[in-house]
Amino acid sequence: MAKRILLYAVLAVGAFVSVFPYLLVVLTAFKTQGQLSETAPWLPGLPPTVDNLAKMLAGDFPRYLLNTAVMTALLTAGQLVFTTFAAYAFARLRFRGRDALFWLFVATMMVPSAVTMIPLFLIMRQLDLVNTWYGLLAPYVLGTPYGIFLMRQFFKTLPAGLEEAARIDGAGPLTILVRVMLPLCRPALGTLAIITVISSWNSFLWPLIITSGDDTKVITVAIATLKQGIGVDYNLMMAGSLIALVPMVAIFVFFQKHIVRSVVLTGLK
Amino acid sequence: MTSHVARTSLVADVKPVRRRGSGWHAYLFVGPSLFGVIAFLLLPMLIVLVLSLFDWELLSSPEFVGLDNYRRLAGDGQAWHSLGVTVAYVLLCIPLQTVLALALAMLLNQRIKGVRFYRSLFVVPWMATPIVLALIWSWIFDPREGAINSALALVGVTGPDWLSDPTWALPAVALVSIWQYTGYNMLFFLAGLQGIPKELHDAAETDGASPAQRFWRVTLPLLNPTMFFVSVTNLIGAFQVFDTVFAMTDGGPSHTTEVLNFRIYQTAFKEFDFGYAATLSTLLFLIIFLVTMAQVRFFGKRTTYDLS
Questions:
Q1: Where does the source fall among the domains of life (chain A) (predicted)?
Q2: What's the CA gap between A120 and A87, in Å, rounded?
């Protein structure tokens, strides 16, 4: 019994530590500047104010939010389409150089992104794509080795008999992929989508390097710039952070099962 | 990993009914992604290698200097300092993070009321933008208004000025990373634990193995593939830490949190010394590569980790 109580105590403390910073974001976002200095950080400011959120939403922030949403949507769409095709070919089709190419993909997973940042920037500069949507999206929109690896593992678990039946009926690879395989892939596609949405929404270094104007600025960069101004306005920063967090937490709550499954899938066979 | 047997089985599970047709389609299917990998991963890698042999400050035209940048690196105290900071950061994060994640996974692999609720709560830190979290944490670490020192004050302890204190800045940054990734890694361990057949534990228990023995002799060896994945991805990630440092300390105070990746960013995009930044990048890549290879060898002796 004592063991049981200890167990729950540990879990409760852990859960609190996990959530505490988020709690501070919410509390601070709803405080006035005065309340922030008067109350302890972990106590709510009464009455709560929506001024910070309103101020953020009245400025350029919605535009950055929209930019981020567009970037996330395009990257996710690109990843789903191109990754699916490539992974299907690697898993189920036979062609010369298949294994060598696949190992090339796996090997590039090891290349640290920081190493490629400078040359990527130079390539984009050469192509005159700095500070454009093309420059922002190009490196990631054609799918990632990680995604291909994940989907390939999944395709390999599907029974071969499905394809044979379709082939006998005269279907080509494209028809088989779209009509037969994709409907079976929905859980795996969902997983891939979630991973891509989260990583795109949160991406920071590449957008920071490749964009500078308002047309392509994303929220991560916008929030970082808030801190660099003279005198940090915590209330506004937390309001911005809260706005950026809400969609991700919502997605997490809705797709919790998929996220756990994604880990089991990539996990490691 | 590319043994003859594995190759054969790879090929054998595909029935080549329409050999020619499917070959042609296959290249079309793989094409776009392959183009992406070549253009945005392999080509940049080559450029870094070439660029590291040049002196180039963006506005001037590149000048070939041979191995000069590498000679400069050898005598560059600041770069080696950054490497030292990186190693210290990795050593602060990884062991604690891994042990905590495994312990948490074992806790949450039991029959507990609301186990799903706890599992999700622990993963929540992973969900948020690193840059946002870094800003929140720099506020939590604030010496006067911050939550940590306010809590310490309640018990009569005066906390340090965390992020401005050369002793505490790096541990503070590491703490944020541990907080963020422990729950995420817990998921991997949880998946691994659930893949261990229950009969094995039952058999060990029947044979009179103590809980400690069962952990060291059954659980841990069978978790080896998970351990491999977690340690490889975490180490690669930790060597590349950037967002947290950028947002919390900007490399300071007096360079005590200036990890190599941050130094590369500074060299390239603040000092516009692209040639030398490429040399530093090559150094970082080499280190990550060697560490990864060492892990592959270390774990390879204990497991059959089959990527195909």
A1: Bacteria
A2: 25
Print burial letters for B134-143: b (CB count within 10 Å at least 16), e (below 16).
bbbbbbbbbb
Q: Nearest 5°: CA angle at B27, between A113 and B48?
A: 25
Q: HSE on the CB side for A88, CA within 13 Å?
A: 28
Peptide bond into B221 cis (omega under 30): no
Q: How far apart are CA A31 and CA A50, in angstroms?
A: 8
Answer for the pair B278, B46: CB distance below 8 angstroms, yes or no.
no
**A15 and B51: CB-CB below 8 Å?**
no
Q: Which residues of B touch A248 (CB under 8 A)?
A: 127-129
Residue type, position B228, single letter = F
Mean pLDDT on A217-245: 80
Amino acid at B71: R
Write out pLDDT tens, residues A72-81: 999 999 999 9
Give dist(CA B243, CA A108) in Å, integer.
Answer: 22
pLDDT tens-place string over residues B261-276:
999 989 988 888 889 9
Q: Which of A81, A80, A98, A97 is nearest to A89 (CA)?
A: A98
Asked if B6 is an interface residue toward chain A (Cβ–Cβ < 8 A), one would say no
Using an 8 Å CB-CB cutoff, list chain B residues near A145: 37, 41
- Torsion angle, CA of A53/A55/A57/A61, rounded to 10 degrees? -110
What single-letter DSSP state applies at residue A180?
I
Residue of B nearest to A145 (CA): B37
- For testing the chain A interface, which of B22, B129, B242, B266 should be mutated: the one with the most A CBs within 10 Å? B129
CA A212-A209-B42 angle, 5° bins: 140
Nearest-5° Cα angle at A109, A103 to A110: 105
Tens-digit pLDDT profile for residues B156-179: 888 888 999 999 999 999 999 999
Question: Residue B55 forms beta bridges with which residues?
Answer: B63
Asked whether A62 and A191 are in contact (CB, 8 A), the reply is no
**Touching A: B residues 179-218, CB under 8 Å:** 179, 183, 187-188, 190-192, 194-195
Please state the ipTM of this predicted complex.
0.80
Q: What is the three-class DSSP state of B243? A: helix
CB A65 within 8 A of CB A177: no
pTM equals 0.80
